[in-house]
Design brief:
single chain; about 260 residues; mainly alpha; three-stranded antiparallel sheet; 5 strands
Length: about 260
């Protein structure tokens, strides 16, 4: 498969739709590329940032809502990560290869004390420490990393791997992970991701909403009802956010799949 670039002011795949003034290019990162080009070639522990976002861990403007910023070492155990999201806890399971990189990152944190610049100001990394630590410890207790720091680290990875600091933005990684999840869901059930049945694709998208913790159970159930009404010509006057997101994602996926298959 080849890389796909998509210009979009609102990719429709995010946790919450936000008004964006300038267009941002969505570069599709394929799973094999994530493993062999990013995880394998960029130093730990920063190389797991794209992996975690790809697997559905969110990064938000408000640090208090950013799942990635609040992950702690105690949340990861035996290849499984517990994410404490806005709509409750959820589990993310890692493949054996992904687990290798996660284990290596955690081990590195314990050895270096979180200090990536080799400074003498190290800390004792415990199970209660954040997985994402600042490169230099200035104050204690250590605050969770902001979106801006995470963006900067992604820019550094993108510059090193692609020679373009804007290539590996969190929107591209998150969108790529969502597309990968949907295609794998379809592959498991139909033997191929190229499924023409839009109802099947929408079922995959609702599974995605739950796996990525994007909406509350109440909102998802309402969206499923509205989607069922749509297919049976029982259209409600109002269309909820989950219903609208499903339609946007379906349209975007078709656009992306067409580009991939060109």
């Amino acid at each position: 498969l080849k890389d796909v670039g998509l210009d979009s002011y609102n990719n429709g795949w995010g946790r919450k739709t936000q008004k964006v003034v300038r267009k941002r290019k969505i570069n599709i990162i394929f799973y094999n590329e994530l493993i062999s080009k990013i995880l394998a070639k960029y130093p730990t522990p920063d190389n797991i940032i794209p992996l975690l976002i790809f697997k559905g861990v969110s990064v938000t403007r408000k640090v208090e809502n950013s799942e990635l910023s609040h992950l702690k070492i105690r949340d990861y155990k035996n290849g499984c990560l517990t994410v404490h999201g806005q709509y409750g806890d959820r589990k993310i399971k890692f493949t054996p290869k992904e687990k290798e990189y996660m284990d290596r990152a955690i081990s590195n944190l314990r050895i270096t004390g979180g200090q990536l610049d080799n400074s003498k100001n190290k800390i004792a990394v415990t199970d209660d420490s954040y997985i994402m630590l600042p490169k230099r410890i200035i104050t204690t207790p250590i605050p969770p990393l902001s979106k801006w720091v995470i963006d900067k680290r992604l820019s550094e990875i993108a510059t090193e791997i692609y020679g373009d600091k804007t290539y590996l933005n969190k929107e591209s990684i998150y969108t790529s992970g969502q597309l990968d999840y949907i295609n794998n869901w379809l592959m498991d059930r139909y033997g191929t991701p190229d499924v023409d049945d839009l109802q099947a694709v929408e079922k995959a998208i609702f599974s995605l909403f739950k796996a990525f913790g994007m909406y509350s159970q109440e909102d998802i159930e309402l969206g499923e009802k509205q989607m069922d009404d749509f297919w049976h010509d029982r259209k409600d006057k109002e269309q909820g956010k989950v219903y609208k997101a499903t339609k946007r994602i379906t349209a975007l996926r078709i656009q992306l799949m067409n580009k991939i298959n060109q």
